[in-house]
Design goal:
The complex is a heterodimer. By secondary structure, chain A is mainly alpha-helical. In chain A, 68% of the residues lie in helices and 5% in strands. Chain A has 14 helices and four strands. In chain B, the strands form four sheets. In chain B, strands 6-7-8-3-9-10 form a six-stranded mixed β-sheet, with helices on both faces. Classes of the chains: A mainly alpha, B alpha/beta.
Chain lengths: 378, 533
């Protein structure tokens, strides 16, 4: 009477997978995403092989100015790396800091303010130090306040950090578009509102290696990467972050001052994002309203794709930077392609990697056909 | 023309990843019998039953209901076959009334009980109808009462009515007695016998031998996912069942060492504590624990045990009263300070991981949870000592784990508890507060833990043992304090009381707190100087 059939497909949990196989799965996911991208490109009349070649070599092949490509890549890579690392710190604590955009802007704005006000009056090194200190403090407070409100009044940190992004963004628009005697951010020579260039002393120093000049902020970013790994793995504060992120009640039980840890970590996270903003404005030599290049958002994706693993963050943000910058370069060859394609491809990759995640943990078992079953029984 | 067996399972296999939860299980349930399913933790009892209730699907094997082979793909399929399961963790919507909880799962197929408009509209008649059904089976329940206002035993009753209302001919109960008092268990067993008399088949999952012997007709035993056999209850006894269940003979005596009286170590006087909702959870409670003494705390789940433990550990603000440790007040001290004074608290909540362990961290990292700050000079965590401690706990308590670097949540329940208790013992406390340390543990692990606690007592540690199993409290503790709705119903000597007396005190029927003309829980040689009015 009960003639219910087996469902067509079932989801079954897998055993632990070999790490190499896992890497293979992710590679397949990325390839699949590129394949989807290729279909789109073909429909636009673009040869995907040529475009992908340009994109992933960031236009270095056959260029006399290959070093320029690396310099360009690093300007995209450095802020993304620092921001992703900083966000991962808060995420590790299960504190949803999605206010990277706002904190980045506040950092940049603070650094620019110091540079423009004190620029002529002091030598380069103290000026830079002061700029970055201001960037960290300003952004740190901007994020720290959210944590403070969270622990005091149980406000929702996701909403707060999200909304503060817009506050910061429109503050930047405000100083960038309001021509007034007090507004020292704008250039006095231009009729239209244009951000003033920073004084020379506020430029990020570079180390020349042949024709190539290495922006020092990149070295700092690598140092921060190692530092954060050490901080999380080895220090007591890092240990506290892990415990609070895992179980707040356990942390309280162990006598940890949870509120203080949350505020401290969020301050640190936001301050590092702000530092990235400070580095960026000092390297770009001027403010701009699109200064963030969406690092606050992309950083969230990088942190999660890397499962908050510090060194994976390095790899993933490098990959995404190559895509973004490579797309910019490639678009010079193909007028129909612009940087939006990089965003699109990034989305597709994210989607496929999440799918790969699923298949790493589970496998599908299909219903056996009647024939097969009989064969087994016999 | 009913078949002999209501349920027959043949060669059932089920694995999760590489773990085989059920291996070639064969099991039969006769029409109108009570079958007890007995096994230690992780022996696959619940997994097997979940395949009957449609939550899991067997990897291979056959299921016969009333002699016909069936495939159960979902809980709906199972319901249609007349199988109803009362889960260990109730599946009820807390804010709904009793009637609505039943109505929620009723389908037009249930003998037309919910037909036509009532499929979309809630009608008043449903209350009457459900009250009628309840009465028909001899239950008393208010169909309008919201679940959140019900006691544990009421919730369980509701779950049983629910399955009966859906027309279950085969009823499965997963550890139904774990949360009940002695009196409530008796009531439940009466109901089960009545259901049996009506011709229903019942499967009851348990690891409590005395209950199994009392209620069942036959006992089926699982061990480590394998089917060991089925025995007639009338032809077996505790020793034989234990041996079948564990695969070896076991000493089922709990050791209680008597040592000479020492000074009161922890004294609680007139303590009042509120719970999370702001209601009084602990109401003017007095008690004390001497060094080398084990004080048991008995009470129905949720009558203030958690709040009491949290208050002593400094995790919960107290409303009024005194808490003294060695004559020194600990009221208002930070949890950190209280840990440093040598007071250790471990509370095993229902989910076993909620408090005391960080589930995603390794055993090593969990070892240093309370002492990672000890070396104030270094900003770094000392993992070397932690690794050694972890290895010692693993060796001494026989924790089953591939390594000390495995996240705690990947361990089985019993091993998780050993890690927690092991760490607390390693911290060499002078007062150990432990709530439900054997919650859900199998016999072997439980007895290991009883021995460890008794060893600690011999070293002069004062122990407050919050437990659920009255037999254990009676055998292990020196004295037992009974709580009912946050009030002390009395402190009795374990050797001078009975289970029945404790049961009456737990439900508030018997109040011995002012017996013999003195207030229970105040030591003669108290460190607290009485201010006479």
């Amino acid at each position: 009477m009960n003639k219910a059939k087996d469902p067509f497909v079932r989801v079954v949990k897998r055993d632990k997978m070999h790490p190499l196989l896992m890497v293979a799965f992710y590679c397949i996911a990325i390839l699949a995403a590129l394949l989807v991208g290729a279909v789109l490109l073909i429909s636009l009349g673009v040869n995907p092989l040529v475009l992908y070649k340009d994109m992933f070599t960031i236009g270095m092949i056959g260029s006399r100015f290959a070093y320029k490509s690396i310099e360009g890549l690093l300007t995209v890579f450095t802020p993304l790396l620092i921001t992703s690392l900083a966000l991962s710190l808060a995420f590790k604590m299960r504190f949803w800091n999605i206010g990277g955009e706002g904190q980045f802007i506040m950092g940049a704005l603070a650094a620019a303010t110091v540079a423009l006000r004190l620029g002529g009056r002091m030598p380069s090194l103290p000026l830079l130090l002061l700029m970055f200190l201001a960037a960290m403090l300003c952004a740190g407070v901007y994020g720290g306040v959210v944590a403070l409100l969270n622990v005091r009044f149980r406000t929702n940190e996701t909403l707060m950090t999200l909304m503060l992004n817009y506050v910061a963004l429109y503050l930047l628009h405000f100083v960038g578009e309001t021509q007034a005697p007090w507004n020292f951010y704008l250039s006095s020579e231009s009729v239209r509102p244009v951000f003033q260039k920073l004084p020379k002393a506020a430029f990020m120093p570079t180390i020349p290696i042949g024709k190539f000049s290495l922006n020092i902020s990149f070295l700092f970013a690598v140092a921060i990467c190692v530092g954060i790994y050490f901080y999380i793995k080895k220090t007591k504060q890092g240990y506290e972050i892990s415990v609070v992120g895992d179980s707040v009640s356990t942390a309280r039980y162990a006598g940890m001052r949870v509120n203080r840890i949350i505020v401290r970590t969020m301050f640190l996270s936001a301050a590092l994002v702000g530092l990235a903003g400070g580095f960026y404005v000092s390297g770009a030599q001027a403010l701009s309203t699109s200064i963030t290049n969406n690092v606050g958002w992309t950083g969230v994706i990088v942190a999660w794709l890397s499962k908050l693993n510090t060194f994976a963050i390095f790899g993933v943000s490098l990959l995404i930077s190559i895509m973004q910058y490579g797309c910019q370069v490639a678009s010079t060859q193909f007028p129909i392609i612009d940087s939006n394609f990089a965003d699109l491809l990034q989305g597709v990759i994210l989607f496929f990697v999440l799918a790969a995640d699923f298949f790493i943990r589970f496998k599908l078992v299909f219903r056996k056909s009647a024939k097969q079953q009989k064969g087994e029984e016999a | 023309m009913a078949a002999e067996y209501a349920i027959e399972l043949r060669n059932i296999n089920k694995s999760f990843g590489s773990v085989a939860a059920n291996k070639n299980i064969n099991l039969t349930v006769k029409q109108g019998e009570i079958l007890a399913l007995l096994g230690e933790n992780g022996s696959g009892k619940t997994t097997l039953m979940n395949m009957l209730s449609g939550i899991y699907k067997p990897d291979s094997g056959q299921i016969f209901v009333d002699g016909k082979e069936v495939v159960i793909n979902s809980p709906e399929d199972s319901k249609k076959l007349g199988i109803g399961m009362v889960h260990q963790h109730f599946k009820l919507v807390e804010i709904f009334s009793a009637a609505d909880n039943i109505w929620l799962g009723a389908e037009p197929g249930d003998g037309g009980k919910k037909a036509g408009l009532s499929r979309v509209l809630l009608k008043k008649e449903r209350y009457d109808e459900i009250a009628r059904t309840a009465e028909q089976f001899g239950f008393h329940i208010d169909p309008k009462k919201p679940v959140q206002a019900m006691s544990v035993s009421e919730k369980q009753t509701l779950e049983i009515i629910k399955v009966l209302y859906y027309g279950a001919k085969i009823v499965i109960l997963d550890e139904p007695t774990a949360v009940l008092t002695v009196q409530e268990i008796e009531k439940l067993f009466d109901i089960l016998r009545k259901m049996k008399a009506q011709g229903r088949s019942i499967i009851i999952i348990s690891h409590k031998l005395n209950e199994v012997l009392e209620i069942s007709d036959r006992v089926a035993i699982l061990r480590k996912g394998e089917y060991i056999g089925t025995v007639e209850t009338a032809e077996t006894d505790q020793e034989a069942l234990t041996e079948l269940m564990m695969g070896k003979k076991a000493d089922l005596n709990i050791r209680r060492t008597k040592i000479e009286k020492k000074n009161p170590l922890l004294e609680i006087r007139d303590l009042t504590v509120k719970n999370d909702e702001g209601a009084i959870a602990i109401d003017h409670v007095n008690f004390y624990v001497r060094g080398g003494e084990m004080l048991g705390v008995a009470g129905i789940a949720g009558c203030g045990q958690k709040e009491l433990c949290e208050a002593i550990a400094g995790l919960r603000k107290i409303e009024s009263g005194m808490m003294n440790h060695n004559g020194e007040s600990i009221v208002g001290l930070s949890p950190q300070k209280i840990i440093e004074m040598g007071i250790s608290m471990s509370f095993i909540p229902e989910d076993r991981l909620g408090m005391g362990l960080a589930p995603s961290l390794s055993i090593t990292d969990n070892m240093i949870l309370k002492k990672y700050k000890n070396n104030r000079l270094s900003p770094l965590v000392d993992r070397k000592t932690a690794r050694r401690d972890a290895q010692e706990v693993i060796d001494e308590l026989e924790v089953v784990t591939p390594s000390a670097e495995i996240p705690v949540r990947r361990l089985s329940g019993g091993n998780v508890q050993k890690v927690l208790l092991g760490r607390e013992i390693k911290s060499e406390p002078n007062v150990l507060i432990t709530a439900y340390p054997v919650r859900g543990l199998d016999i072997n692990s439980s007895y290991t833990i009883y021995r460890i606690l008794d060893d600690l007592k011999q070293k002069g540690v004062g122990i407050l043992f919050v437990g659920e199993d009255l037999d254990v409290l009676l055998a292990l503790c020196d004295k037992i304090m009974v709580l009912c709705h946050g009030k002390v119903m009395g402190v009795v000597h374990a050797s001078k009381t009975t289970k029945e007396q404790l049961g009456l005190m737990m439900t508030g029927v018997l109040d011995l707190s002012e017996a013999n003309g003195k207030t229970a829980g105040i030591a003669k040689d108290s460190n607290i100087k009485e201010v006479q009015p």
